[in-house]
Structures are given as structure tokens and as C-alpha cells.
Design goal:
The termini are close together. The protein has an eight-stranded parallel beta barrel, surrounded by four helices. Strands 3-4 form a two-stranded antiparallel sheet. Helix 3 packs parallel to helix 4. It is an alpha/beta fold. It has helices at about 15-25, 45-55, 80-95, 110-130, 145-155, 165-170, 175-180, 210-215, 240, 255-270; strands at about 1-5, 30, 35, 40, 60-65, 100, 130-135, 160-165, 190, 195, 200, 225-230, 275-280, 280-284.
Length: about 280
């Protein structure tokens, strides 16, 4: 079965608006990143308890914490950053998830040994809280190309993996090659699509990310989660997570309209692959 989750902060910065967007689109799972205009890593534990109750009361389950962990320069104060990781792990416990999305450092192409060592240590820290770290490929971090992601996969025991097709394309990686090498060992997928020639972000299936192939490669008896991170419109906090200009092919009247279009596009790809809506997700 395939479950659908989403970064609902792309629909609305307000938690209330995020819940409305998820329920309007029939989604039960959220990947938490921005809450009421604040990054997840900056909220307190007391605030997390209040937010966790709000989501739970609305019937929304937290799939993962979409944290900024590892999105710092490799030469920065990593001990302080590990304290931030500990805080995010405690937040994950409060929100009832054992998953934290993270990255593998800026300015790190020439620091492979240090990157791998730091990642190993961070995995051990997360283990202390019963949490798993999930590495996402991201442009300009160490793990942005297939070659370096494979080094991470083969060197950091206990680290889980996310596959973002658009991020690979933006790093000039071939979709067929990355899918062939990584699909089987990917723990869950971020759904974002892009037109390679122009760099324009588009709904799933409108670009070169081969979202249809990604879905077709999931065994029918497997459980996988697809998290929508469409970037179809500039949203609150975007400048904090990406220092590049967002290019979009399609224009929308609001973030909610863009979010709905992203959900509908992914559902269309699923239906074209023979999937139907069932309790808890989509199945053939």
C-alpha cells in the first residue's frame, strides 16, 4: 500500500490552515517543517505538546519531522548543532514519530571523512531517543549526487534514506540511473518534479522526474510513503530552506490552490498506475 503525506506548510503557514488543506485533500499524514511561520527546530517542547494535541484532535498523524538538521556548513559549530538534533529528537518523541528528515552539510565536497564521521555520530544520538534519521539528497550538500549518496549509504550504518527526484535532476543526475541504483534501498520518497531543461518546478508527472516509473517500481506487497513537497509556489519560510530563486511553470492564485493541484497531480499518477483509494492509502 502507498500512503500519502505532505509538507502542508506549503499550503498555509498557519497550523489551522494546514489541517484544513490536508483534510480537504483527504490526506491523513503530515511531514512537519513550518508551524505558524516558525521552523520546527525552533519550537519548545511545551509548544510541541500543544501542537501535537491539535493535530491529533483533527485526526492528522505526524509521519516525519522535516528538520533542517545537517543543513549547515561542515565548518560550523557541529557540537551546538548536535544539541539542536537532540532537541528535535525530543520533539519527534512528543509528536509520536520515529522519523527525522536531515541532510549532509554544505561546503563539504572535500570533507568526505568528516561528513561520514559526523553522520555516524548523529545516528547514534538519534538512537538514544528511539528515532531514525532519514537523509535527503539536496543540491549543494555533500549527498547531492548519486556517487556521494552511495558513499553515505555504504558507510553510515543505521541511516535511512529519502529520494527526491527533482533535487537529483537539479544536480544534473539521470533519473533512470538514480532510480535503478537507489529505489530498492529508499525508505520513503519526496514527490517533487522539475523540467530539466528550464529548471521549472511542476506538479508530479509534468516534469522529468519519472514519478510514474518511481511508483511502478514499488512492489505491490510493499508499504511505502510518498510525501508531497511540490514547491509550486513560494511559501512562508522558503528562503530559510533554499537560497535559490524558485522557478515555476504554472501560476496559481494562492498557496492552497497550488497545494491542491500538487495533490491532484500525484493522485492522477497513482490512478494511471492502477492504484485506487482504500482505507489508509492507495492500493492496486
Amino acid at each position: 500500500m502507498i500512503r500519502l503525506a505532505a509538507f502542508a506548510d506549503e499550503a498555509d503557514s498557519r497550523v489551522e490552515g494546514q489541517i484544513e488543506a490536508l483534510k480537504r485533500n483527504g490526506l491523513e499524514y503530515i511531514e512537519l517543517r513550518g508551524l505558524d511561520g516558525r521552523n520546527i527546530a525552533t519550537i519548545t517542547e511545551d509548544e510541541a505538546r500543544a501542537y501535537a494535541k491539535t493535530y491529533a484532535d483533527a485526526g492528522i498523524k505526524v509521519w516525519s519531522i522535516g528538520s533542517p538538521i545537517g543543513k549547515v556548513d561542515i565548518s560550523s559549530d557541529l557540537e551546538a548543532h548536535k544539541n539542536t538534533l537532540r532537541h528535535v529528537c525530543r520533539l519527534a518523541n512528543i509528536f509520536g514519530t520515529d522519523k527525522i528528515r536531515m541532510f549532509s552539510f554544505y561546503g563539504a565536497y572535500e570533507s568526505e571523512e568528516k561528513v561520514l564521521s559526523e553522520l555516524c555520530e548523529m545516528v547514534k544520538i538519534a538512537d538514544e531517543y528511539g528515532v531514525k534519521l532519514y537523509h535527503e539528497n539536496e543540491k549543494e550538500i555533500f549527498g547531492d549526487t548519486l556517487e556521494r549518496v552511495l558513499k553515505i549509504r555504504d558507510s553510515v550504518e543505521g541511516l535511512c534514506h529519502i529520494y527526491d527526484p527533482a533535487n537529483y535532476l537539479e544536480c544534473k543526475q539521470d533519473a533512470d540511473e538514480t532510480l535503478a541504483a537507489l529505489h530498492a534501498t529508499t525508505d520513503y520518497f519526496h514527490i517533487k518534479d522539475v523540467i530539466s531543461a528550464t529548471g521549472e518546478l511542476v506538479p508530479a508527472g509534468f516534469g522529468n522526474g519519472k514519478i510514474d516509473k518511481l511508483i511502478s517500481m514499488i512492489p505491490e506487497d510493499d508499504d511505502k510513503t510518498l510525501t508531497l513537497e511540490p514547491h509550486l509556489a513560494v511559501f512562508a519560510g522558503y528562503s530559510e530552506i533554499d537560497n535559490t530563486e524558485m522557478k515555476n511553470k504554472f501560476k496559481f492564485n494562492s498557496n492552497n490552490e497550488a497545494f491542491d493541484a500538487a495533490v491532484n497531480a500525484l493522485k492522477s499518477v497513482l490512478e494511471a498506475q492502477g492504484y485506487k483509494k482504500v482505507d489508509g492509502g492507495y492500493a492496486k
